[in-house]
Write a structure and sequence with these properties.
Shape: globular
Keywords: DNA-binding, Transcription, Transcription regulation
Organism: Micromonospora arida
Order of helices and strands: EHEEEEHEHEHEEEHHHHHHHHHH
CATH topology of the largest domain: Rossmann fold
Protein name: AraC family transcriptional regulator
Pfam family, one: DJ-1_PfpI
Distance between the termini: 47 Å
Structural class: alpha/beta
Number of domains: 2
GO molecular function, one term: DNA-binding transcription factor activity
């Protein structure tokens, strides 16, 4: 039996804690024995978790007996973590204990230095900020979870369940993990590399010098745009435009245009019954096949599959 310690951090997201507690706590082996022993530990006897106040029975030294430590997100992930928690996590990592973060719990791992030089993810809304604060982290905002062996991270909300089921499968195999997935009424196989359902290419703190160009693209993405069109609208040379896009967004101008078109297509798939052909034309893609290819490449699902998730009542008529 593995011992899982779920950290009770100040201002913890209760959903993140419950995801780990419920998933691991309900795992049963073929002979009926529990697969995990669950412990909730913290540096204080009680913590506020949103509207809840949670009593904490175990202190941080419980981490010394853990096979896995789960670090939930905090409602304000930018607040410094308690030094005692960071020290305990560093010590656990040095002893080879597995440590997994859920959602913005990755900020705590990054603050402890455990993500330096490693692949990591977090909720897509916070990914840019984590990358800015911790440039040594190899941030990948497009995936559901990452597994570096002893250090694991998940994206937001339901992705924490995917990561927990992935860990169960690693520990006990597919059959036990499938049973845990059925108890959670969740699919077993959503691989870590599947894309998060991200809202693509909105301006961030890093795009202030491109604001004019981004606003113009937002309004004109449906057109058959060229680099020269965008440069003229931004009052820049093509060379300057390309350099600034690379510096400030990490993308080329045309990659940014594709992302905006995908976001506009997501909106239409979620809110209208329009066919995929019509949406491709409305959002600026030259052909439906090009739209399907780019959509699937960026989001990891087809437009039809995306619609089934976010607008199931239209999935038959809109496909």
């Amino acid at each position: 039996m593995y011992t899982v310690v779920v950290l009770a951090l100040p201002d913890a997201i209760a959903f993140d804690m419950a995801t780990a507690i419920e998933t691991f706590g309900r795992v049963r082996l073929p002979d009926g024995r529990p697969g995990y022993r669950l412990v909730v530990a913290g540096h204080e006897p009680s913590v506020q978790a949103g509207p809840l106040r949670l009593a904490v029975d175990e202190e941080l030294d419980a981490i010394e007996r853990a096979d896995l430590v789960v670090v939930p997100g905090r409602n304000d992930p930018f607040q410094p973590s308690p030094p005692a928690v960071l020290a305990a996590l560093r010590a656990a990592a040095q002893h080879g204990t597995r440590i997994a973060s859920i959602c913005v719990g990755a900020f705590t791992l990054a603050e402890a230095g455990l993500l330096d030089g490693r692949d990591a993810t977090t909720h897509w809304l916070a990914a840019d900020e984590l990358a800015r604060r911790h440039p040594a982290v190899r941030m990948n905002p497009d995936v559901l979870y990452t597994d570096n062996g002893s250090i694991l991270t998940s994206a937001g909300a339901a992705s924490g369940l995917d990561l927990c089921l992935h860990i169960v499968q690693r520990d006990y195999g597919v059959a036990v993990a499938a049973d845990a997935a059925r108890l959670a009424v969740a699919p077993l196989h959503r691989p870590g590399g599947q894309a998060q359902y991200i809202v693509r290419n909105r301006a961030t703190y890093r795009t202030s010098t491109l604001q004019r160009a981004l606003s113009w693209i937002e309004a004109n993405a449906y057109r058959n745009l060229t680099l020269a069109d965008i440069a003229a609208a931004a009052d820049m040379s093509v060379r300057t435009l390309t350099r600034r896009f690379n510096d400030e967004t990490g993308q080329s101008p045309m990659q940014w245009v594709s992302g905006v078109r995908i976001r506009h297509a997501q909106d239409l798939l979620e809110t209208t019954d329009h066919t995929v052909d019509r949406i491709a034309a409305q959002t600026g893609f030259p052909t439906t096949s090009n739209f399907r290819s780019q959509f699937t490449q960026l989001l990891g699902v087809t437009p039809g599959a995306y619609r089934k998730v976010f607008r199931p009542q239209a999935s038959q008529t809109g496909a």
